Structure formats: structure tokens, C-alpha cells
From TrEMBL:
It is found in: Cytoplasm. This is Chromosomal replication initiator protein DnaA. Domain I is involved in oligomerization and binding regulators, domain II is flexibile and of varying length in different bacteria, domain III forms the AAA+ region, while domain IV binds dsDNA. ATP binds at residues 174, 176-178. Keywords: ATP-binding, Cytoplasm, DNA replication, DNA-binding, Lipid-binding, Nucleotide-binding.
Length: 485
């Protein structure tokens, strides 16, 4: 929309701008959302827009093209003065409460004098969508397994940085993909309350698309999706075997990217290995940044346990956090599950105390022993036992099977005997033979000694190389690993 106080100049600048940036982007950002006026002395081009968001967007993405278009039309440089004047754009105010989203076409629209007046935007605004977004980027715990994903998410959510392509996050279950997607959407909202941000899942996108087709409202669906500033789609692999949905998604993807919007997708696998993902979609995804999130390492797990426990007001001593971090392998969701169980057990154990939310070593042992008892029992082989023990202690198998009296070799021997007897069906003579043809009474003595120690003094310290707090801890941990093996 152009209004020239100096005749013809502003419309000519606008027309030149439209040619430079292309009709789609012009229609999207200027046609209904910008009014150009040129001072009589032709020193300044004033561009009035309805919101700070549009002003910032134009400032970041089109200032140079605007200045060039003005200079080329006038033969001299002009000051560009961007002004936020919502009163000049009564048509573009937020929808009234209760307004039917699908009733209102989106703005900006094509310049068609016969078309009805533009209606309020229909896309999810902060008040509608924010309540679904629970996670923020600031509460995401960062470690080597996810730091690139987190950095990419922060960059994409930064309204001051122009997006350079889609972001594709992939990784196993419960590792934080949804958290990052929601965090991006939330942060963009916080910076740009006018931003049109949509967080959805592959399944929801499919359902919305099918509903739109059935209700003959495909145009409204397309308008809603294609005029977003950020589209975040979780579990995008859901659309993999759905040809029509993929096709629709592909067009939306192209359209919103063309307009400079941000796109972030998440899936359990790399786009190239998602079965029945169309080649076109794969190539769009890999054009941007594809980042994997891996399982957190022990140090990150410690920080996650601390943060997640704090969120639940669960008090866990640092040394108990360390034990938990070593024993809780797997995803962050599994860590959350462990904390939930501990919280419930703490409440049952201390129902009347003032501190039902305190977790100590005893509770942790109780939990892991309980879990181990519930785990399906699989046959364990002697070879697996000795390998697991040697690996954990960092000691040579030959030393354990030989005559070495080093502290670790002796401990390795005792642990192998104890766990083999406990987890396999081997008799003492069989264990003695497997342990390098030892006398079987020596093996029985070793087995009895460790059993006695575990009963009388489970907190017997162990060498630091074993990374365990006590003998009981070490045995429980090894047993758990072997049961899972
Ligand atoms: N690095 C992290 N910092 C803090 N919380 C985390 C982190 N990673 C995951 N979480 C939390 O763990 C839980 C599971 O994470 P999320 O749902 O994001 O996983 P996901 O990768 O999307 O899993 P799925 O593929 O199963 O949907 C959430 O409560 C999330 O907030």
C-alpha cells in the first residue's frame, strides 16, 4: 500500500522494491502491511507498519533493498524511517476472543481492489499457543551429547539472526528433542509477541490436513501454515508413508522458507534413513543443519539429576547424585522415571517426617535391587561375567585368571566368582575350571568371603578405579549391567 505526498515517487519505489524482492515476498511483507510516504524535500522515505515485529523484520531483511530501490528511483540516497503505527492499520488488529480462526483470511494478501477487506490474522498467537509450550531453552541442561543441538536451537530462536535454512534434530526417545522445539517456539514468542509461531507434531499436521480436505477448507489450512514465522514439527517421521500429507508439507515448507520463516523438525532418525520419506523432503532437510542428540554422559547425567530433582523439590546429597548418575543409563526420560520412583518411595518411607522428599543411599539401593528383581531373568554366560568385571575394573582378564595378587586382580577374581555363582547355573567345580583350573575349595572360600563382607559391612570401600562408593554399590551395579546384557 503506498501513499505519496511527493507525487508518484513512493509508488515507484514500492514497485521497484517488489521487482527486486519478488512478488511473493512483497505481497507478504509490504502489500497490506506497509505505507510509504516520501517527504517533500525527498530526503526521507517513511515506512509505516502495523507492528514492531514487521518493523524489525523489514529492518533486518529488506532495509538494503528499500534503500537501493529509493536511490535508483530518485538518483540520490534517502533516509529510511520505519515507524510503527498500528492505528493506521485497523484491519490488522488481533482477532476478538471467540472469533472463528478459519473464518478469517490471513494478512497480508494480494492487491486485489475487488477483494473484501483484509481480516485479522488467524494464526495461533501467543495467548493461544503458549499455554501448550511447557519447556524453555534456559532450563535445558547442556553437555557434549546435546550442545550442538542446543546451540543451533538458540540460534534459530534468536529473532536478530536471519535463518539460514531448516534445523533438523534427531535422536532416540526421551533425549530432549521436544524440549528444544518447544523452547525455540517459546523464546521466539518472548522476543516477538506478534510472531506467528506454530508448534505441532507430524500426527497433528496429518490430522489437520485431512480435516481440512474433508471440510473443503484446504485454502484456509494452507494460509494458516504458509504465513508462519516459525513452524516447529515434532515427530516428522509420522508423515513418512503418507504421500498426500508429505506433498502438502513439502509445499508449505517451500512457501514459508521462501518468505524467510524459520523451520525446525524433529525425528527419531536422520532424514536420510527415515523409510518412505520422499526424496524431495530429504533434500530440503539436509540442505539445512541436521544435528543428532545422543545419550548424556555421566557428568551431564549428574547435572540433569540435580536440575530435575530441584524441579521436584527433591533433596539428594551430591554423593547420592553421583551414584544415581552412574547407575541410571539411558535417556533423560528414564532419569525422570527414576526420580519419580524415588520420590514415591521417599514419601512411603517417611510419611510423617518433615522431610519426606529426602533421598539417601539406602533408598537408591532399595530402588535398584527392586528393579533388578523385577527384571526378566536372562541366562548369563561366564564369559560375559568376566568380561564385564574386567572392563569395569580396568584389569586384564589374564591377571584375573592368573596368580596375580594385585588389589584389582584379587577383587576381579572374587567378583567374577560371586556373580557367576549368583547369575549362572554353574557349580563351584565348573567355576573353578573356568577360572583357570583352580582348586574348587579356593573358589568356595572366595565366594563365602565376599558374601560375608556384603552382609557384615556392605560399605566396605573399594579402589577408586572401580568408580563405586562401596562394595555393595559395585556388586549391585555389575549385577544390573549383567542382567541387562
Ligand atoms: N538436556 C535436558 N535438560 C533438561 N531436561 C531435559 C533434557 N533433555 C530432556 N529433558 C526432559 O526429558 C523429558 C523427555 O524429553 P523430550 O520429550 O524432549 O524427549 P524427546 O527426544 O522429544 O523424546 P520422544 O522422541 O520420545 O518424543 C522432558 O521432560 C524434557 O524436559
Amino acid at each position: 500500500m503506498t501513499t505519496a505526498t511527493s507525487p508518484d515517487i513512493a509508488p515507484r519505489i514500492a514497485a521497484r522494491l517488489a521487482r527486486t524482492i519478488g512478488p511473493r515476498r512483497y505481497a507478504m511483507w509490504f502489500e497490506q502491511s506497509a505505507r510509504f510516504t516520501c517527504d517533500h524535500d525527498q530526503q526521507t522515505l517513511r515506512v509505516a507498519v502495523p507492528s514492531r515485529f514487521i518493523a524489525d523484520w523489514i529492518e533486518r531483511n529488506f532495509r538494503k533493498q528499500l534503500a537501493d530501490a529509493a536511490q535508483q528511483e530518485l538518483g540520490q540516497p534517502l533516509e529510511i524511517d520505519l515507524q510503527v503505527t498500528p492505528d493506521h492499520f485497523p484491519d490488522q488488529r488481533a482477532p476478538q476472543a471467540g472469533a472463528q480462526q478459519s473464518d478469517a483470511p490471513d494478512s497480508p494478501t494480494r492487491n486485489n481492489p475487488s477483494s473484501p477487506k483484509p481480516q485479522p490474522p488467524t494464526l495461533p498467537r501467543k495467548t493461544q499457543a503458549a499455554r501448550h509450550l511447557r519447556r524453555s531453552l534456559s532450563e535445558f541442561i547442556v553437555g557434549p551429547s546435546n550442545e550442538l543441538a542446543h546451540a543451533a536451537a538458540c540460534r534459530l530462536a534468536d529473532a536478530d539472526i536471519e535463518p539460514t535454512g531448516p534445523l533438523f534434530l534427531h535422536g532416540g526417545c526421551g533425549l530432549g528433542k521436544t524440549h528444544l522445539l518447544q523452547g525455540i517456539a517459546k523464546r521466539l514468542f518472548d522476543q516477538q509477541p506478534d510472531a506467528r509461531v506454530h508448534y505441532t507434531t507430524g500426527e497433528q499436521f496429518t490430522n489437520d490436513y485431512i480435516t481440512a480436505v474433508r471440510a473443503n477448507k484446504l485454502d484456509a489450512f494452507r494460509k494458516r501454515i504458509r504465513q508462519l514465522d516459525l513452524l516447529a514439527v515434532d515427530d516428522i517421521h509420522f508423515i513418512a508413508n503418507k504421500q498426500a500429507t508429505q506433498q502438502e508439507f513439502l509445499h508449505s515448507f517451500d512457501q514459508i522458507e521462501l518468505c524467510g520463516a524459520r523451520v525446525v523438525l524433529a525425528s527419531d532418525s536422520h532424514p536420510k534413513v527415515i523409510k518412505q520419506f520422499s526424496e524431495a523432503l530429504v533434500s530440503r532437510c539436509v540442505r539445512g543443519l541436521v544435528v543428532q542428540i545422543a545419550q548424556p554422559d555421566t557428568a551431564t547425567r549428574e547435572r540433569l539429576i540435580e536440575a530435575l530433582a530441584k524441579r521436584r523439590r527433591l533433596a539428594i546429597a551430591p554423593e547420592v547424585v553421583q551414584t544415581l548418575a552412574r547407575r541410571t543409563r539411558g535417556s533423560v526420560r528414564e532419569i525422570e522415571g527414576t526420580l519419580t520412583k524415588l520420590q514415591a518411595m521417599a514419601a512411603i518411607n517417611n510419611p510423617k517426617t518433615a522431610t519426606p522428599n529426602v533421598v539417601g543411599h539406602a533408598l537408591v539401593h532399595q530402588l535398584f535391587n527392586h528393579d533388578a528383581d523385577l527384571a526378566p531373568t536372562r541366562p548369563v554366560r561366564f564369559e560375559t561375567v568376566i568380561e564385564t568385571v574386567c572392563e569395569r575394573l580396568g584389569v586384564d582378564r589374564a591377571e584375573v585368571l592368573g596368580r596375580s595378587r594385585s588389589q584389582l586382580a584379587v577383587l576381579g577374581r572374587t567378583l567374577t566368582i560371586h556373580l557367576t555363582r549368583d547369575l549362572t547355573s554353574m557349580s563351584y567345580p565348573e567355576i573353578a575350571r573356568a577360572m583357570g583350573n583352580r582348586n574348587h575349595s579356593t573358589v568356595i572360600t572366595a565366594a563365602k568371603r565376599i558374601l560375608g563382607q556384603l552382609e557384615a559391612n556392605p560399605n566396605t570401600p573399594v579402589p577408586t578405579e572401580t568408580q563405586a562408593d562401596s562394595l555393595r554399590d559395585l556388586v549391585d551395579d555389575l549385577r544390573q549391567t549383567l542382567r541387562r546384557a
